[in-house]
Design goal:
The chain is an all-alpha fold. The chain has helices at about 10-15, 35-55, 60-65, 70-85, 95-105, 110, 135-150, 155-170, 175-190, 195-200, 205, 210-235, 245, 255-265, 270-280, 285-300, 305-310, 315-325. The chain is globular, with a radius of gyration of 18 Å. The two termini are about 30 Å apart.
Length: about 325
Protein backbone atom coordinates (compact mmCIF):
# COMPACT_ATOMS: atom_id res chain seq x y z
CA UNK A 1 0.00 0.00 0.00
CA UNK A 2 2.98 2.30 0.39
CA UNK A 3 4.14 1.70 -3.19
CA UNK A 4 2.00 4.39 -4.89
CA UNK A 5 2.44 6.95 -2.09
CA UNK A 6 6.24 6.84 -1.86
CA UNK A 7 7.79 10.05 -3.24
CA UNK A 8 4.48 11.97 -2.87
CA UNK A 9 3.84 14.75 -0.39
CA UNK A 10 0.81 14.74 1.88
CA UNK A 11 -1.21 17.09 -0.32
CA UNK A 12 -0.69 14.80 -3.32
CA UNK A 13 -1.52 11.68 -1.28
CA UNK A 14 -4.73 13.19 0.09
CA UNK A 15 -5.82 14.34 -3.37
CA UNK A 16 -5.34 10.85 -4.81
CA UNK A 17 -6.27 8.54 -1.94
CA UNK A 18 -8.37 10.63 0.46
CA UNK A 19 -7.80 10.30 4.18
CA UNK A 20 -5.60 7.58 5.62
CA UNK A 21 -8.68 5.79 6.96
CA UNK A 22 -10.06 5.57 3.41
CA UNK A 23 -6.99 4.00 1.82
CA UNK A 24 -7.60 0.69 0.10
CA UNK A 25 -5.48 -1.84 -1.70
CA UNK A 26 -3.85 -0.53 -4.89
CA UNK A 27 -5.01 -3.35 -7.13
CA UNK A 28 -3.31 -3.87 -10.49
CA UNK A 29 -4.11 -6.16 -13.41
CA UNK A 30 -5.73 -9.38 -12.31
CA UNK A 31 -6.77 -7.95 -8.94
CA UNK A 32 -3.27 -8.47 -7.53
CA UNK A 33 -1.44 -6.14 -5.17
CA UNK A 34 2.14 -5.72 -6.35
CA UNK A 35 4.61 -5.65 -3.48
CA UNK A 36 7.81 -3.62 -3.42
CA UNK A 37 11.46 -4.54 -3.05
CA UNK A 38 10.92 -4.56 0.72
CA UNK A 39 8.74 -7.69 0.57
CA UNK A 40 10.86 -9.23 -2.18
CA UNK A 41 13.97 -8.98 -0.04
CA UNK A 42 12.16 -10.13 3.12
CA UNK A 43 11.20 -13.27 1.20
CA UNK A 44 14.83 -13.64 0.11
CA UNK A 45 15.97 -13.50 3.74
CA UNK A 46 13.33 -15.96 4.94
CA UNK A 47 13.91 -18.41 2.12
CA UNK A 48 17.68 -18.17 2.59
CA UNK A 49 17.24 -19.20 6.22
CA UNK A 50 15.18 -22.20 5.13
CA UNK A 51 17.92 -23.14 2.67
CA UNK A 52 20.55 -22.74 5.38
CA UNK A 53 18.77 -25.19 7.65
CA UNK A 54 15.78 -23.47 9.22
CA UNK A 55 13.55 -25.93 7.38
CA UNK A 56 15.17 -28.92 9.09
CA UNK A 57 12.61 -31.04 11.00
CA UNK A 58 12.68 -30.15 14.69
CA UNK A 59 13.09 -26.50 15.74
CA UNK A 60 16.21 -27.06 17.83
CA UNK A 61 17.90 -29.05 15.09
CA UNK A 62 17.00 -26.29 12.64
CA UNK A 63 18.43 -23.60 14.91
CA UNK A 64 21.66 -25.56 15.34
CA UNK A 65 22.01 -25.74 11.55
CA UNK A 66 22.09 -21.94 11.20
CA UNK A 67 25.81 -21.16 11.41
CA UNK A 68 27.47 -17.89 10.38
CA UNK A 69 29.06 -19.50 7.32
CA UNK A 70 25.93 -21.33 6.20
CA UNK A 71 23.69 -18.29 6.65
CA UNK A 72 26.12 -16.04 4.77
CA UNK A 73 26.32 -18.45 1.82
CA UNK A 74 22.53 -18.78 1.62
CA UNK A 75 21.93 -15.04 1.92
CA UNK A 76 24.49 -14.31 -0.78
CA UNK A 77 22.82 -16.78 -3.15
CA UNK A 78 19.30 -15.44 -2.55
CA UNK A 79 20.36 -11.78 -2.72
CA UNK A 80 22.05 -12.38 -6.07
CA UNK A 81 18.93 -14.20 -7.30
CA UNK A 82 16.86 -11.18 -6.28
CA UNK A 83 19.31 -8.91 -8.15
CA UNK A 84 18.56 -10.69 -11.43
CA UNK A 85 14.87 -11.40 -10.86
CA UNK A 86 12.78 -9.88 -13.70
CA UNK A 87 10.37 -8.65 -11.01
CA UNK A 88 13.16 -6.57 -9.47
CA UNK A 89 11.71 -3.42 -10.99
CA UNK A 90 10.16 -1.78 -7.92
CA UNK A 91 12.59 1.11 -7.36
CA UNK A 92 15.20 -0.96 -5.49
CA UNK A 93 17.76 0.94 -3.42
CA UNK A 94 21.13 1.70 -4.95
CA UNK A 95 22.98 0.36 -1.91
CA UNK A 96 21.34 -3.05 -2.27
CA UNK A 97 21.99 -3.16 -6.01
CA UNK A 98 25.63 -2.18 -5.65
CA UNK A 99 26.39 -4.56 -2.77
CA UNK A 100 24.57 -7.50 -4.37
CA UNK A 101 26.53 -6.97 -7.57
CA UNK A 102 29.72 -7.11 -5.49
CA UNK A 103 28.52 -10.28 -3.80
CA UNK A 104 27.91 -11.85 -7.20
CA UNK A 105 31.51 -11.12 -8.16
CA UNK A 106 32.55 -13.35 -5.26
CA UNK A 107 33.98 -10.59 -3.10
CA UNK A 108 34.33 -11.22 0.60
CA UNK A 109 31.15 -9.77 2.03
CA UNK A 110 33.01 -7.34 4.30
CA UNK A 111 34.51 -5.91 1.10
CA UNK A 112 31.29 -6.12 -0.90
CA UNK A 113 29.14 -4.14 1.51
CA UNK A 114 28.58 -0.39 1.28
CA UNK A 115 30.42 0.42 4.46
CA UNK A 116 28.96 3.87 5.13
CA UNK A 117 25.30 3.14 4.32
CA UNK A 118 22.60 2.94 6.97
CA UNK A 119 19.65 3.00 4.57
CA UNK A 120 16.44 1.27 5.56
CA UNK A 121 17.16 -1.50 3.06
CA UNK A 122 19.09 -3.03 5.95
CA UNK A 123 16.05 -3.60 8.16
CA UNK A 124 13.04 -3.50 5.84
CA UNK A 125 13.72 -7.21 5.18
CA UNK A 126 14.78 -8.51 8.62
CA UNK A 127 11.45 -9.45 10.20
CA UNK A 128 11.44 -13.13 9.07
CA UNK A 129 14.49 -13.73 11.28
CA UNK A 130 12.34 -13.10 14.36
CA UNK A 131 9.93 -15.89 13.46
CA UNK A 132 12.42 -18.77 13.18
CA UNK A 133 11.66 -21.03 16.17
CA UNK A 134 14.20 -21.93 18.85
CA UNK A 135 16.94 -19.45 17.98
CA UNK A 136 18.93 -18.21 20.94
CA UNK A 137 18.92 -14.47 21.55
CA UNK A 138 22.54 -14.21 20.42
CA UNK A 139 21.85 -16.23 17.29
CA UNK A 140 18.83 -14.12 16.37
CA UNK A 141 20.85 -10.94 16.92
CA UNK A 142 23.77 -12.23 14.87
CA UNK A 143 21.61 -13.28 11.92
CA UNK A 144 19.71 -9.98 12.00
CA UNK A 145 22.95 -8.00 11.91
CA UNK A 146 24.60 -10.22 9.29
CA UNK A 147 21.73 -9.99 6.81
CA UNK A 148 21.99 -6.20 7.10
CA UNK A 149 25.76 -6.12 6.94
CA UNK A 150 25.95 -7.92 3.60
CA UNK A 151 24.73 -4.73 1.95
CA UNK A 152 24.75 -1.97 4.59
CA UNK A 153 27.94 -1.82 6.66
CA UNK A 154 27.15 1.17 8.90
CA UNK A 155 26.78 0.31 12.61
CA UNK A 156 23.36 1.95 12.77
CA UNK A 157 22.13 -0.33 9.98
CA UNK A 158 23.22 -3.33 12.06
CA UNK A 159 21.74 -2.09 15.33
CA UNK A 160 18.47 -1.00 13.73
CA UNK A 161 18.09 -4.38 12.05
CA UNK A 162 18.74 -6.18 15.33
CA UNK A 163 16.25 -3.93 17.13
CA UNK A 164 13.64 -4.34 14.37
CA UNK A 165 14.01 -8.10 14.65
CA UNK A 166 13.69 -7.93 18.43
CA UNK A 167 10.56 -5.79 18.17
CA UNK A 168 8.99 -8.42 15.91
CA UNK A 169 10.02 -11.20 18.29
CA UNK A 170 8.57 -9.37 21.30
CA UNK A 171 5.27 -8.78 19.53
CA UNK A 172 5.06 -12.39 18.37
CA UNK A 173 5.53 -13.39 22.01
CA UNK A 174 2.61 -11.18 23.09
CA UNK A 175 4.50 -8.23 24.52
CA UNK A 176 1.83 -5.70 25.60
CA UNK A 177 1.92 -2.64 23.36
CA UNK A 178 2.43 -0.26 26.27
CA UNK A 179 5.58 -2.16 27.25
CA UNK A 180 7.09 -2.35 23.77
CA UNK A 181 9.17 0.85 23.72
CA UNK A 182 10.58 0.33 27.24
CA UNK A 183 11.52 -3.25 26.32
CA UNK A 184 13.26 -2.04 23.17
CA UNK A 185 15.15 0.66 25.06
CA UNK A 186 16.32 -1.89 27.60
CA UNK A 187 17.47 -4.26 24.85
CA UNK A 188 19.36 -1.49 23.05
CA UNK A 189 21.11 -0.35 26.22
CA UNK A 190 22.17 -3.90 27.09
CA UNK A 191 23.44 -4.44 23.54
CA UNK A 192 25.49 -1.22 23.24
CA UNK A 193 28.93 -2.76 23.59
CA UNK A 194 28.28 -6.23 22.18
CA UNK A 195 30.01 -6.74 18.85
CA UNK A 196 28.92 -10.02 17.23
CA UNK A 197 32.35 -10.95 15.97
CA UNK A 198 31.38 -14.53 15.17
CA UNK A 199 28.82 -13.15 12.69
CA UNK A 200 30.49 -9.91 11.59
CA UNK A 201 34.15 -10.85 11.42
CA UNK A 202 36.43 -7.87 10.82
CA UNK A 203 33.72 -5.45 9.65
CA UNK A 204 34.53 -2.94 12.40
CA UNK A 205 38.18 -2.86 11.37
CA UNK A 206 37.19 -2.46 7.71
CA UNK A 207 35.14 0.57 8.77
CA UNK A 208 38.18 2.10 10.45
CA UNK A 209 36.67 1.97 13.95
CA UNK A 210 39.09 2.27 16.91
CA UNK A 211 37.63 -0.92 18.37
CA UNK A 212 34.61 -3.19 17.77
CA UNK A 213 32.70 -2.09 20.89
CA UNK A 214 32.78 1.62 20.01
CA UNK A 215 31.84 0.80 16.40
CA UNK A 216 28.60 -0.94 17.34
CA UNK A 217 27.82 1.41 20.26
CA UNK A 218 27.48 4.30 17.81
CA UNK A 219 24.68 2.45 16.03
CA UNK A 220 22.81 1.57 19.20
CA UNK A 221 23.02 5.19 20.40
CA UNK A 222 21.43 6.42 17.16
CA UNK A 223 18.65 3.87 17.60
CA UNK A 224 18.06 4.98 21.19
CA UNK A 225 17.67 8.57 20.01
CA UNK A 226 15.17 7.46 17.36
CA UNK A 227 13.14 5.59 20.00
CA UNK A 228 13.08 8.75 22.12
CA UNK A 229 11.71 10.76 19.19
CA UNK A 230 8.95 8.20 18.65
CA UNK A 231 8.07 8.19 22.36
CA UNK A 232 7.89 11.98 22.38
CA UNK A 233 5.63 12.03 19.32
CA UNK A 234 3.32 9.43 20.85
CA UNK A 235 2.63 11.63 23.87
CA UNK A 236 0.34 13.73 21.66
CA UNK A 237 -1.43 10.57 20.39
CA UNK A 238 -2.37 12.39 17.18
CA UNK A 239 -3.16 9.76 14.57
CA UNK A 240 -3.93 12.51 12.01
CA UNK A 241 -0.34 13.74 11.94
CA UNK A 242 1.92 12.57 9.11
CA UNK A 243 4.09 9.88 10.75
CA UNK A 244 7.14 10.88 8.76
CA UNK A 245 6.77 14.47 9.93
CA UNK A 246 6.25 13.30 13.53
CA UNK A 247 9.18 10.88 13.72
CA UNK A 248 11.32 10.89 10.59
CA UNK A 249 11.23 10.53 6.80
CA UNK A 250 12.54 6.95 7.24
CA UNK A 251 15.02 6.69 4.40
CA UNK A 252 17.54 5.54 7.03
CA UNK A 253 17.24 2.42 9.14
CA UNK A 254 16.69 3.82 12.62
CA UNK A 255 13.99 6.23 11.41
CA UNK A 256 12.16 3.50 9.49
CA UNK A 257 12.03 1.42 12.67
CA UNK A 258 10.91 4.29 14.89
CA UNK A 259 8.29 5.57 12.45
CA UNK A 260 6.85 2.07 11.95
CA UNK A 261 6.63 1.62 15.73
CA UNK A 262 4.87 4.97 15.93
CA UNK A 263 2.30 3.86 13.33
CA UNK A 264 1.66 0.65 15.26
CA UNK A 265 1.24 2.39 18.61
CA UNK A 266 -0.65 5.51 17.50
CA UNK A 267 -3.35 3.23 16.03
CA UNK A 268 -3.36 0.94 19.11
CA UNK A 269 -2.02 -1.90 17.00
CA UNK A 270 -5.11 -2.35 14.85
CA UNK A 271 -3.70 -4.22 11.81
CA UNK A 272 -5.60 -2.47 8.98
CA UNK A 273 -5.22 0.98 10.56
CA UNK A 274 -1.52 0.43 11.24
CA UNK A 275 -0.79 -0.21 7.56
CA UNK A 276 -3.10 2.54 6.32
CA UNK A 277 -1.49 5.11 8.61
CA UNK A 278 2.02 3.99 7.62
CA UNK A 279 1.32 4.04 3.88
CA UNK A 280 -0.36 7.46 4.08
CA UNK A 281 2.94 9.21 4.84
CA UNK A 282 5.31 11.61 3.13
CA UNK A 283 8.61 9.72 3.39
CA UNK A 284 9.70 6.17 2.57
CA UNK A 285 6.09 5.01 2.72
CA UNK A 286 6.54 1.45 1.48
CA UNK A 287 9.32 0.66 3.97
CA UNK A 288 7.39 2.16 6.88
CA UNK A 289 4.28 0.22 5.88
CA UNK A 290 6.26 -3.01 5.40
CA UNK A 291 7.70 -2.81 8.92
CA UNK A 292 4.53 -1.54 10.58
CA UNK A 293 2.53 -4.31 8.90
CA UNK A 294 5.07 -6.90 10.05
CA UNK A 295 4.77 -5.64 13.61
CA UNK A 296 0.96 -5.74 13.52
CA UNK A 297 1.00 -9.20 11.95
CA UNK A 298 3.45 -10.53 14.53
CA UNK A 299 1.27 -9.19 17.32
CA UNK A 300 -2.08 -10.43 16.05
CA UNK A 301 -1.30 -13.33 13.68
CA UNK A 302 -1.93 -13.61 9.95
CA UNK A 303 -5.64 -14.36 10.38
CA UNK A 304 -6.16 -10.79 11.63
CA UNK A 305 -5.77 -9.44 8.09
CA UNK A 306 -8.88 -8.92 5.97
CA UNK A 307 -9.41 -11.95 3.72
CA UNK A 308 -9.48 -9.76 0.61
CA UNK A 309 -6.01 -8.45 1.50
CA UNK A 310 -4.56 -11.93 1.92
CA UNK A 311 -6.14 -13.20 -1.31
CA UNK A 312 -4.87 -10.30 -3.43
CA UNK A 313 -1.24 -10.35 -2.30
CA UNK A 314 1.46 -10.95 -4.89
CA UNK A 315 3.67 -13.95 -4.05
CA UNK A 316 0.86 -15.25 -1.86
CA UNK A 317 1.95 -18.88 -2.16
CA UNK A 318 5.54 -18.08 -1.19
CA UNK A 319 4.48 -15.90 1.72
CA UNK A 320 2.09 -18.56 3.01
CA UNK A 321 4.65 -21.35 2.66
CA UNK A 322 7.24 -19.37 4.58
CA UNK A 323 4.97 -18.05 7.32
CA UNK A 324 3.07 -21.25 8.05
CA UNK A 325 6.29 -23.23 8.41
CA UNK A 326 7.12 -21.07 11.42
CA UNK A 327 3.66 -20.51 12.90
CA UNK A 328 4.53 -22.37 16.10
CA UNK A 329 6.98 -19.78 17.35
CA UNK A 330 9.05 -21.33 20.13
Amino acid sequence: MGYPTEFLDMQQIAATFGTWQEMGLPLSAGDVVRVTDDTQMALAVGEALVAAGAGTPGPREAAAALTPYGVEVALRKHFVSWLHDPDNDRAPGQTCLRACANLERGMRWQDATVINSKGCGANMRVTPVALVPALSGGQRSGIAQLQAALTHGHPTALAASDLTCHATWLLAHRCPLDELLPELRSYAQKSRNTYRGDWLGDLAAKAGAPDPASFIAFGWDECLRALDIAAQALRAKDAERDPCEAVGASWVAEEALATALYCLLVTDGHPRSTVQRAAHSSGDSDSVAALAGAFAGAHHGHTSWPPEWREAMEYGARITALSTSWDAVD
